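Quick start: read one record
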Amino acid sequence: MAKKNSGFIGGLAIGAVATILVGSAFTEYWLYGKENTADLQPAAGGMQLVETPAPAPVAQPQPPAEATATPNPFNTGGIATTTDALRLYADAARSSLVLNVIAQGESVTITEASGNYATYPVEADGIAWVRVRAKDGLAGWVDSTKLEIR
């Protein structure tokens, strides 16, 4: 303890601000020119800090879920009906040779894609092409949007 009338209380100058830790809270106090530390008074407008829990960890963004592919309705061996008169092409392209015209309402059988194609129906010229076999046995490619699967 400091000497009487020294202007210090417990090593702090009179009028100084002391921060005291009580439990997990900090409180600022002013020393009011008295020798007894019991004369410590809370500072006017002082701030009391209270322990707060640590912030929750930031959630890591999840990669977008893979889109589930729409099942291909054009299964080999399936039967479809033409919704319009339909050109039967030698290959999956409008520039290909037209083999025949299939009348509206006729049934066709979906067949496997010929050639080396990565997807089926085959996307070319902005059209989804499907290979079919007509009633007369002729096989070729048609615009899939003009087929109705049964």
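The chain has two domains: 8-49, 79-149.
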